[in-house]
Amino acid sequence: VAVTAGGSMGLAAGLAAGMGAALVAAALMAATFVLLKRRGNEDPITVALASFGLAVAIASLVLWTWGTNAFVLPTFTSFWDLAGIRLNPQGIINLATSLSMVLALYVVLYRTDLGRMMRAAAVNPRGAALAGIAVTRVQCGAFLAGGALAGLAGLLIVFSSGLDYTIPLPL
Fold this sequence. Notes:
Blueprint: H1 2-9, H2 11-38, H3 44-66, E1 80-82, E2 85-87, H4 89-111, H5 113-123, H6 125-130, H7 135-161
Antiparallel strand pairs: 1-2
Helix pairs in contact: 1-2, 2-3, 2-7, 4-5, 4-7, 5-7
């Protein structure tokens, strides 16, 4: 999605489209989770199997839409030389982005009320609900945050090593 949109509209539009696609996939999984939960089926195995099924469906849709041709986005043509070590600027960008996301995730999980609610909902959903935490809303938010992080990781991978739409098929 990012590359198709980026080719005709520019890099920023492609990045936004890639993040949007990841958030849509995460929202679909959150909706599936809520539907399973409302039917009284909160077994973690059922949720895991539903996520695999949804992943296969999304992968099939992507293959049907864009085909099986792999591609690599050209990023940097030159490398940085630091004390005789060649550094790829994309690798530095990936490292800096990853470290900043880990730091941001740590701050959110351990230094905010939202993080406290997320941890409470994960450890004891019934107790969190009795304490007034909207557990389902927090869990759906966690799905969306996970989708955003996965989308960002996917974009970094596309710029580093390319993309092959058939990667998830052996699952």
